[in-house]
Amino acid sequence: MFMAKGMSEMSNQELSRYNMLRDLDVPAELADKHSQGCPFILLSDLTAAKHCKQDTTGKAIFQVLRHLGRLVETPIHKDRVYTTV
C-alpha cells in the first residue's frame, strides 16, 4: 500500500501510519526478513481491518498456521508481527 504511492499522494492518516512503521524498532532477525521482501502484518492492523474478524475462528486459524510453521509470530512494542515462512 505505501510502496505504491508517493509521499505527496498519501493522506494524513496513511502518512502517520507510514511514519509509525518506519520508526518501529524491529529486531535484527526480523529486519533481515523484511529487507528480503517477506510479507508481514501487525496484529493491530488485523484488529482494525473490517474484513478480518478476531473471533474464535480467526484466532484458531492463526494458531493452526503457527503450529504448521507457515506463520512466525514475533512480539514487538505492545504488538505482534506475523511473518510468512
Task: Write up this protein.
By secondary structure, the protein is α+β, with helices and mostly antiparallel strands. It contains four helices and three strands, in the order H-H-E-H-H-E-E. The protein has helices spanning 12-22, 28-35, 43-48, 56-67; strands at 40-42, 71-76, 79-84. A hairpin with a 2-residue loop joins strand 2 and strand 3 (79-84). The model has no long low-confidence stretch (mean pLDDT 76).
SSE arrangement:
Blueprint: H1 12-22, H2 28-35, E1 40-42, H3 43-48, H4 56-67, E2 71-76, E3 79-84
Task: Summarize the entry for a quick read.
By secondary structure, the chain is α+β, with helices and mostly antiparallel strands. The protein is 44% helix and 18% strand.
Q: What number of domains?
A: 1
Order of helices and strands: HHEHHEE
Number of strands: 3
Rg measurement, Å: 14 Å
Number of helices: 4
Defining traits:
globular; 4 helices; alpha+beta; about 80 residues; three-stranded antiparallel beta sheet; about 45% helix; about 20% strand
